[in-house]
Amino acid sequence: MKLTGGLFPHPPIIIPEVGGERRFEAESTINACQELAGEIVDEEPDLLVFSGPHGRCEREEITILADDIIKGDLGQFNVPELNFSVSSLPGLVSDMVRKARAEGWAVDVAEDTISVRLDHGVMVPLYFLEEAGLGDVPWVIVNMAFWTPEKLFGFGQFLSEFFNETEALFVASGDLSHRLKPGAPGGYAPEGEEFDRKLMEYLGEANIHEIIEMDSELREKAGECGYRPLLIALGFCQNESLNVDIKSYEGPFGVGYGVAGFYQDHQD
Predict the structure, then answer these.
(1) Which of 2, 74, 163, 174 reaches 20 to 30 Å from 186, CA-CA?
(2) What is 191-254 written as a DSSP string?
């Protein structure tokens, strides 16, 4: 089986400098993130394609970060000394945007200093990837749009076709429901548990059709942030032999954290 991508959650509390001892309340998530990060590093990818929900997200347009080096820190979570940087490929991004536009996709390059920053949706998975030994692998960072599920999935397919001659892996970042129990960040809603249960069930079955068809009202009431990045990832990784390994799911702080690896049958 060949790894083609994966889903990480992004709670800063699971990073030692942020969460301290409290992080161990999400120990299954930490262990699963370490496992997935190790598998990604072992694949020795030429490129990581990323999508998450916390960058500059437009309703009708995908934005892609373009700079030689993209930096960020966790000052928002009281540890500004914990900083990260990744290299990128602005020339390749420009080529990709031109091709996407030629095919009718509403895509733009984000080059302004406010937008071209690593947010915590990138930095939490990056923490585990660096811990696992990730070298200077370039990243292409894709900010989601609020497109239909079918269109987001289709854009993932476009990305897969564009990078088909590159050893590229997809990193999706997103938490699930923020409303799993009273006191959760988004308050409590019973739909939160229902959404997470269904999504993880469909994902474990690699049942993309059911994921795409998930009820929009259920998604909204669940208060999730990972559904759209996941759809782009599934479009990128989908093939007739897609297998999904659910490495962990838990919600210790009232937010659902799912970790999953995406694989395909691979013959040398």
Answers:
(1) 74
(2) HHHHHHHHHHHHHHTT-HHHHHT--HHHHHHHT-SSHHHHHHHHHHH--TT-EEEEEEEE-TTS
- Distance of alpha carbon 124 from alpha carbon 8, whole angstroms: 8
Start-to-end Cα distance in the chain: 11
The CATH number that applies at residue 15 is 3.40.830.10
What residues contact 67, with CB distance under 8 A and at least 6 apart? 88, 90, 111, 116
Task: State the chain's mean pLDDT as an integer.
Answer: 95
Non-local (6+) Cβ contacts of 40 within 8 A are: 3, 6, 48, 129, 132, 134, 169, 171
Q: Report the domain count for the chain.
A: 1
Question: Rounded CA gap, 228 and 176, in Å?
Answer: 11
**CA–CA dist 19, 9 (Å, integer):** 15
Tokens of 241: 């032999």
What length does the chain have?
268
Q: Which residues pair with 84 in a beta bridge?
A: 72
pTM above 0.70, yes or no: yes
Residues of the domain holding 19: 2-264
Question: pLDDT tens, 119-166?
Answer: 999 999 999 999 999 999 999 999 999 999 999 999 999 999 999 989
pLDDT score of 113: 80
CA distance 78 to 70: 20
Nearest to 216 by CA among 207, 208, 204, 224: 224
Which three-class secondary structure state does DSSP give residue 75?
helix
